[in-house]
Amino acid sequence: MASSGVVGFVGLDELSLELAASLVRSGFRVQAFEIYTPLMEGFLKLGGDKCGTPIEAGKDAAAVVVLISHADQINDVFFGNDGLAKGLHKDAVVILHSTISPTYIQKLEKRLTEDGEVAFLVDAYVSRGTSEALNGKIMITTSGRSEAIAKAQPVLSAMCEKLYIFGGEVGAGSKVKMVNEVLEGIHLVASTEAIFLGTLVGIHPWIIYDIISNAAGNSWVFENNVPLMLRGNYTHHFSNTFVQNLVRSIGVGKVSYLLISSFLECNCFCSMDSS
């Protein structure tokens, strides 16, 4: 029988460390498998326990949060020699916090449940709220069968400030992420075009930024990403991640991918005077 007070993590990032910290504060015992040493060191400082394999991270856990972004890696994590599925209790729930397509999530759930390795799986889109009310706090959009949601809800609620639930089948969380990624991309392209237009007509880009960030044309993407463009460290910070997430979420065609990549990777602002 899994312990209701134990939560495992397979894969960590900076956002996951916040989730783990929230769980520790709520009284959960948290254990994790992660190969990147700095992330594991940060996790241990929170009071978490280190695991040597995915199967160990799932031992005695009532819930396991999985953060792996590539389908082949997910297959290895679940079904490899030290695969997570082999060590989970039948009443444990897997919370899939990965950037993969809704179709793949549904296929993964079918395989896990039909093989009898995992009975409960939900997907969870984790992000920071940008509204005045949330102001950087964690929000989670999750979906799954009603019994799976019921298993996961105590853990999900402990990890976030705002929880959205879609009952019925897995995949809705990933679909919401897809919608948000598309909107971020639209705002990104619009912000880039706006700054470029201003420079073409002779207005310094930092002046444009200062004015628009206080005007009706402002957006979170404009306000937070334009300074990175103008300082020249924009590409590494955002565009690579955005393109990768978009491709994993909706399977953008090769031509569209190349167009988006070349546009976002351009360094037309990197040479601008940032003084």
What would a concise description of this structure say?
The chain is α/β, with parallel strands linked by helices.
Structural class: alpha/beta
Instruction: State the helix count.
Output: 12
Strand order in the sheet with the most strands: 3-2-1-4-5-6-7-8
The percent range for strand residues is: 15-25%
Give the overall shape, derived from the CA principal axes. Answer: elongated
User: Kindly state the mean pLDDT as a whole number?
Assistant: 83
Instruction: Report the CATH topology name of the largest domain.
Output: Rossmann fold
Number of strands: 8
SSE blueprint:
Layout: E1 3-10, H1 14-25, E2 29-33, H2 37-45, E3 49-50, H3 54-57, E4 61-66, H4 71-79, H5 84-87, E5 93-96, H6 102-114, E6 120-128, E7 138-144, H7 146-159, E8 162-167, H8 172-200, H9 205-212, H10 220-231, H11 234-250, H12 254-265
Parallel strand pairs: 1-2, 1-4, 2-3, 4-5, 5-6, 7-8
Antiparallel strand pairs: 6-7
Helix pairs in contact: 8-10, 8-11, 10-11, 11-12
